[in-house]
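Sample entry was shown:

___
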Amino acid sequence: MRKVKDKRKFNIGLIQTKVSADIEANLKKTITRIKEAAKRNARIICLQELFGTVYFPQDKKNSAFKSAETIPGKTTNVLSDLAKELNVVIIVPMFEKDSKGKYYNSVVVIDSDGKLMDTYRKIHIPHDPLFYEKSYFKPGNLGYRIYKTKYGRIGILICYDQWFPEAARILALKGADIIFYPTAIGWIKGHTSSDGDWHDAWETVQRAHAIASGVHVAAVNRVGEEGRLNFWGQSFVCGPFGKVLKRASSIKEEVLVARVDFSKNKRIQKGWGFLKNRRPDTYGLITKKL
């Protein structure tokens, strides 16, 4: 009897790259990396935040608006054809300009048949030195989304969203098997923070989301120096109890491919009861502005 393949177990791929000012070159390089991930049997492939451009929000204002694209548009057309050709799901973070001329930090999911699924727009927008995102992006207005693909139910949040446990919990309650966090984060050159290790906090909070909701988590970050920022890479995948399954380099471009097993989620959720034992009747303060 032929063994039936377990569709809850498969490979995912994270594309961690350095980014230049040449948008066409960035796209070509990313396409090569996607093909490599697919060759290594990755079925869901996630790109890093704003994968096609340098991280322009480190300037309060610049000419980056000309690089924004519509959805669908040139980039999504190219990657839709690629997703269909390779039979993979591709998560594409990009700088979006909508039909009304408003700009968003967005993700479009392309299913394995090449069709565009709903867009997610980054909801939590930071505005700090070298991360001046409110100068460029409107807050997301499409809510939190679950994408039902042939390889599972995936949730997506973008970079700064990763610090908010409420967002991760909502996606878990909606049925996410895994939450992807496309990211652009690193150290500021010459700055020593009194807060402690930024990278350690970044990884810890995301692993905590995995544990608290019993879901897999995958974070993909860029590498290299851009202006005053030194991106720390270290893209990673962790299981539903926070164990890191695979972690990428802190300095090198890399196609990280990791094996996931979504069947483990229910065991953690049932065994620890973090979802069923919630007390939403006591959580009213969460929905109020401080």
User: Anything to note?
Assistant: The chain has one domain: 9-287.
